[in-house]
Amino acid sequence: MPAAISPTPEQMVTTEQTDRSAHAIRLLREALALLAHETAEAPVARRSQDRLLRLPEVERLTGLGRSAIYQQMQCGAFPLSVKVGPRAMTWSEKAIQGWIAQRLGARVH
């Protein structure tokens, strides 16, 4: 009976890489299946949730700077912030999206 030939180090590395790649592919497929299932199952629930946005995100969404946001809040022309800590202010995402929609609606009419 011929002696078994042990794999070379290069072949062992290739086998490990193949195993890791196969495992990564399995995990990605599982993640995609979960996302597809979640999206199909509860698209309305996901949209109905509100998030709290920090100032940089509000600035990015509205195109306004910090000073302009606070000035418009004082005038009642911008959604009020929600205090979540001693020095942390947030805004309701729905309120910000509503403000944006209102501005776009006023522009169209």
List the uncertain runs. none
Distance between the termini: 89 Å
Q: What's the CATH architecture of the largest domain?
A: Orthogonal Bundle
**Shape, per Cα inertia axes:** elongated
Mean pLDDT: 82
Radius of gyration: 26 Å
Strand arrangement, major sheet:
1-3-2
Structural class by SSE content: mainly alpha
Order of helices and strands: HHEHHEEH
Task: Please identify the top-level CATH class of the largest domain.
Answer: Mainly Alpha
Helix content bin: 55-70%
Provide a count of the helices: 5
CATH fold description of the largest domain:
Recoverin, domain 1
Q: Name the beta content range.
A: 5-15%
Q: What count of structural domains? A: 2
Major sheet size, sense and barrel closure: 3 strands, antiparallel
* Total E-strand runs: 3
Question: In words, what does this structure look like?
Answer:
This protein is mostly helical. The chain folds into two domains: 9-47; 50-108, Recoverin, domain 1 (Orthogonal Bundle), CATH 1.10.238. It has five helices and three strands, in the order ααβααββα. A three-stranded antiparallel beta sheet has the order 1-3-2. A hairpin with a 2-residue loop joins strand 2 and strand 3 (88-92). It is elongated, with a radius of gyration of 26 Å. The termini are far apart.
